[in-house]
Q: What sequence folds into this?
């Protein structure tokens, strides 16, 4: 079977850990010509005694120095997002796939106790940054000719959340910000489909990542997920690779006619949304 994203040039934001890291690694494994790993820092340290190789380092060690790079980016700063897209085009000549993954989790605060900074901060990272990534990716896509081997001029994959489909308590800002990402995704698909620019969202359930690990160590949280997720033991044993598989498919030509979709990858959590 041919590599799913062979010869494609990709950007993944929030690529240093968790879902973003898994997506970047899988895109490289599936043949991406180049993966720009964008984040606030190149790697993460699970503890003071552990030093984990950066995502782009793992890719270059496995596939070659020309297959990946890192750029420090704050996705809430417009000029930095613009520069991120410009760098990958300067390096690789084009952009084929952008995965807007960088985000923040729920503040776990009742609405009446939430500060304006909590609310606006959640939307700034989860929603506005997704808009900025789409904006500058689309500008580049529209300048590109449609390659004969690809059915789409460009591919946008927004990492939303199952909480954007089915609300949960103490997460009003997070749920609303991710629902906005889903709506933005569908509007973008409508607006740019005629240009063969594809836009889809993935709506992950809770998978085990550095961001979710503290929450999943809580017995009450574990009981909640076991109650609301039909699959297996609440799905809490699932890792970020589950989301990466969906992203690699959406980035591939196999999904060349799929656009405007909010794809739940959540063990059935959103079935009753």
A:
């Amino acid at each position: 079977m041919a590599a799913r994203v062979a010869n494609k040039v990709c950007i993944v934001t929030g690529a240093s850990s968790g879902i973003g890291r898994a997506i970047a690694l899988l895109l490289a494994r599936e043949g991406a010509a180049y993966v720009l790993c964008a984040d606030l820092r190149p790697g993460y340290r699970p503890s003071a005694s552990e030093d984990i190789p950066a995502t782009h380092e793992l890719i270059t060690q496995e596939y070659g120095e020309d297959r990946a790079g890192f750029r420090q980016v704050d996705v809430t700063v417009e000029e930095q997002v613009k520069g991120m897209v410009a760098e990958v085009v300067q390096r690789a000549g084009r952009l084929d796939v952008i995965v807007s993954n960088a985000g923040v989790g729920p503040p776990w605060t009742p609405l009446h106790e939430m500060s304006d900074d909590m609310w606006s901060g959640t939307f700034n990272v989860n929603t506005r940054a997704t808009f900025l990534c789409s904006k500058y990716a689309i500008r580049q896509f529209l300048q590109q000719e449609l390659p004969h081997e690809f059915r789409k001029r460009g591919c946008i994959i927004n990492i939303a959340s199952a909480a954007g489909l089915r609300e949960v308590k103490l997460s009003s800002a997070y749920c609303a910000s991710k629902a906005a990402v889903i709506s933005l995704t569908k509007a973008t698909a409508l607006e740019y489909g005629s240009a063969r620019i594809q836009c889809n969202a993935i709506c992950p359930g809770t998978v085990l990542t550095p961001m979710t690990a503290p929450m999943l160590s809580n017995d009450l949280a574990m009981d909640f997920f076991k109650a609301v997720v039909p699959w297996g033991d609440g799905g809490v044993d699932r890792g970020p690779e589950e989301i990466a598989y969906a992203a690699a498919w959406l980035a591939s030509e196999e999904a060349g006619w799929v656009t405007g979709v909010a794809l739940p990858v959540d063990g059935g959590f959103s079935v009753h949304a």
About this structure: Helices lie at 18-29, 55-63, 78-92, 116-143, 172-192, 213-216, 219-228, 241-251. The chain is about 40% helix and 15% strand. Strands lie at 9-13, 34-39, 68-72, 97-100, 154-159, 197-204, 262-265.
